[in-house]
Amino acid sequence: MKIRVLSFFLLLSISAHAQIDTIVKIEFQSLSRGYYEHISITEDSLVVRKNENRSAEESVNKRALSKKEWKSLLKEFNHVNLESLPVLESPTMKRAYDGARHSSLKVYSTKSFYEHLFDDDNPHTKLQPVMKCIRSIAN
Fold first, then answer.
1. Overall fold of domain 21-138
2. Rounded CA gap, 100 and 82, in Å?
């Protein structure tokens, strides 16, 4: 009986100290021969870097991110298994022959980072609400 009680408390203690996998940063990047865009979003900041012409200077826009914006973005990930991001298929592969921009969505968490590759602003259907929210926040 004492062993069971001790085992129970040991398991309870271990689970209480287990780290929860929390999203800490989200990045969207899209590029082609003459175009570059990088959006970085954290709990308190938004940074948008853009260069639409290689010879032009890169534009950088920074601003604070509201708690409401961060929560709305995290809410879009509720229906997405982060570990499945790398294996989700892109709806198209036009980037393979320069028919579209090479785009990626990277999600950094407290435990790891996950990446999904796709064309333009066209990720897997599970991630389309996420992209819509990112665009809404960045514009």
1. Mago nashi protein (3.30.1560)
2. 25
